[in-house]
Amino acid sequence: MRLLNEDAVRNIALGAAVLGTGGGGDTAIGLYIALDEMRRNGPIELLDVNEVPASALILPTSMMGAPAVSIEKLPSGRELDIVFDDMQVALGKRAFATMPVEIGGGNSLVPLILAARRRLPVVDADAMGRAFPEYQMVSFHLHGLAARIATFADERGNRATVHPCDGEWGERLCRPLVDAMGANATACDFPLTGEEVRRCAIPGTVTLAEEIGRLISRAGDRQTGNVVTDLVDALNGYLLIEGKIVDLKRRTMGGFTRGSMTIAGIEQDIGRSVTVNFQNEFLVARDAQGVLATTPDLITLVDHETGHAIPTETLTYGMRVALLACPCHDQWRTEEGVRTTGPRYFGYEVDYEPVESIARRRA
User: Fold this and answer.
1) Is the pLDDT of residue 107 over 80?
2) Fewer Cβ atoms within 10 Å of its own Cβ: the N or the C terminal residue of the chain?
3) CATH of domain 2-205
4) CATH for 225-362, among 3.40.20.10, 2.60.120.10, 2.40.390.10, 3.20.20.70?
5) SS3 for the chain, per residue?
6) How confident is the model at residue 26 (pLDDT cuts 50, 70, 90)?
């Protein structure tokens, strides 16, 4: 167990944005709320998965919907308490801790807000190791755990409890509900025991986000070096291109931020271009020679100079960026993991190939 102070949470926000692969929601609003709660209530207790009692109830908390909507659709502040309390009432049991469903983007901060407000521990784990756009794209689903129950609330005071039989039905049932709530809502779902968290979650991801964020936050203090190169090394990843966004198509449809962008190379990449397709998250990156990386591996976009991640909802023509890719957690490279989150699931006629295999083949 260790305590997270304000600097740690700032670094988590920075690092989670990188792990968000363009999605998971912007971290700015969540960070402001989390810091405000900490100033009222003190630091946040972070637990290793092995410190959680086997029978303890763990309630993941998150936002669901199109990240672009959250920029203008501000929360009331009551939603988290509503979904958390509705879940405890439905289960007839008090929660021991909360945790992120996805460490990527703003969803990393939702459980930190709740933890500070309610003085609850947060488990150092999540169910993605990144961000994914759909309900069933969690490690719990890969292990056959049913969603069982999910609670939702919006800023108007609307609330709902859903009982999906599995993760895929959770997507079918809950996406239209969230659309009706304005394409963005607060959620509490996949209630777990401590034993299930240890067996099924991806451990250490809150700490990973903090370490990545610390690297970015210290970049301005260095006299030499390159933050993009440092990020590539920290992620065990690959630099796909450095360049400028020269084409951008984006719209909110079906509860997702969908589109594509083209990056024209600069400096050592001049003469090259890379096109990236996204659905909340960056899913496929290609150049003239073919595929460079696909989901479930992480494709993330950062500012060329600062290393700060750029989510899909804030992409702008002319931005100078670096496009990175790195390996996903091994759980997503199983047959079921690729079936659930691979490029063919999203309609791309591309077979998944690990990013490191593509890099070796094209070297």
Assistant:
1) yes
2) C
3) 3.40.1610.10
4) 2.40.390.10
5) CEEECHHHHHHHHHHHHHHCCCCCCCCHHHHHHHHHHHHHHCCEEEECHHHCCCCCEEEEEEEEECHHHHCCCCCCCCHHHHHHHHHHHHHCCCCCEEEECCCCHHHHCHHHHHHHHHCCCEECEECCCCCCCCCCCCHHHHCCCCCCCEEEECCCCCEEEECCCCHHHHHHHHHHHHHHCCCEEEEEECCEEHHHHHHHCEECHHHHHHHHHHHHHCHHHCCCCCHHHHHHHHCCCEEEEEEEEEEEEEEEECCEEEEEEEEEECHHHCCCEEEEEEECEEEEEEECCEEEEECCCEEEEEECCCCCECCHHHCCCCCEEEEEEECCCHHHHCHHHHHHHCHHHHCCCCCCCCHHHHHHHHC
6) confident
